[in-house]
Design goal:
The complex is a heterodimer of chains A (90) and B (88). Chain A is an all-alpha fold. Chain A is 78% helix and 0% strand. The longest helix of chain A has 35 residues. Chain B has one domain. Chain B is mostly helical. The chains are: A mainly alpha (90), B mainly alpha (88).
């Protein structure tokens, strides 16, 4: 077999493989969040880019990041309870 | 995928659950993006209740809209194996 042969992996190797995959997924998700946050909070907080990030812009960005996280968690909760409801109705 | 390639039930199970989990995550990223634009005003000290309600409704209606579109598309579209999309 040319593709990844998993039959020959030991238990420890399998654990390692799964850990690595999980880590890669976590990194990808963090990157996605970072990209989205930067885009959204830049739009909200920086109207006219000056020579430096001034104090009020920094404050706004910090607040925006926290609210974006709140929104993310709320969406996650809402979506997962919707899935639960649909499942119960089936 | 041939059977010989996925012979490890533990790994197969792992891939399936992680795929499912990631599909959820991707949707949450997308929904947050959409609903943030729809609902968010100026960021303040906390998410006010008006914004919270808006975000929750936004998620629910987005799913409703997707379901509606899927149904309507299925009804107006003839699926055939040789030609995937044929509009009536």
């Amino acid at each position: 077999m040319d593709t990844l042969s998993t039959g020959s992996l030991s238990g420890a190797q399998k654990e390692e493989l799964m850990d690595q995959v999980k880590q890669q997924i976590a990194i990808a998700n963090a990157q996605e969040l970072l990209t989205k946050m930067s885009e959204k909070c830049f739009k909200k907080c920086i109207n006219k880019p000056g020579t430096a990030l001034d104090n009020s812009e920094q404050k706004c960005i910090a607040m925006c990041m926290d609210r974006y996280m709140d929104a993310w968690n709320l969406v996650s909760r809402t979506y997962s309870s919707r899935i639960q409801r649909e499942r119960n109705n089936m | 995928m041939t059977e010989t390639q996925l012979q490890d039930p533990q790994l197969e199970n792992f891939v399936l659950t992680e795929t499912q989990k990631q599909r959820f995550q991707v949707l949450v990223h997308g929904l947050t993006d959409t609903c943030w634009d729809t609902c968010m005003g100026w960021p303040s000290n906390r998410l006010d209740s008006k914004t919270e309600v808006c975000i929750m409704n936004c998620v629910e209606r987005f799913i409703d809209a997707t379901t509606f579109i899927t149904r309507r598309l299925m009804n107006t579209t003839k699926y055939r194996s040789d030609a995937p999309l044929v509009f009536q």
